[in-house]
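User: For documentation purposes, I need each entry recorded in a consistent format: the amino acid sequence on its own, followed directly by the corresponding structure tokens. There are two entries in this batch. Please keep commentary to a minimum and don't merge the entries.

Assistant: Recorded as requested. Entry 1:
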Amino acid sequence: MNRKRKAPEHDAQEPFVVVLKALYFFSVALVPLAFRVPFLVSLGSLGGVGVLHGLSVIVLTS
């Protein structure tokens, strides 16, 4: 168990899984919001700050 735990595949796979989880989270979070508020699509293209700003606007207006 301990020998396989130090396998290079595990170390190389971990950041890849984190990236996949981040992409999955953003896709799940942005797709429904994009249908509700079209301007979020343009904000999302600006980057994470635009997305956070759009989400805060939705929270404040709802």
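Entry 2:
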Amino acid sequence: MLVKVYAEAIEEIDKGVIEAIKATGGSQFQVIMQGVLPTIMSAFISWSVFRFDVNIRYAAVLGIVGAGGIGWELVRASRVMAYDQVLGVTLVIFGMIISMEFLTRYLKKRSDVVSAKAAS
């Protein structure tokens, strides 16, 4: 799935920026570093972190249905009525999801600043 999104982000690059860098004598490396990467980094970061976040959530759900992982620990603790462990595992899952949300916002803001600098 990520490959398709990455390919679409690369296809949406403004060709005028690349032509402008080449017209001013820019090397292929400069075209990539100053024309391509600032344009696609926001999409790459957003989609990568989003998929990682989804994978964390899926790991918890798959564990609940018996595939192992952190969801299995939650089920195991609830079956033996170890509610302190249930709370602990739930807080770990919640903490991972919240930290991914903060990481996503931080990286998105940072990539938007880089993209804005590259555009000006």
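Summary note for entry 2:
The first helix runs from residue 2 to 11.
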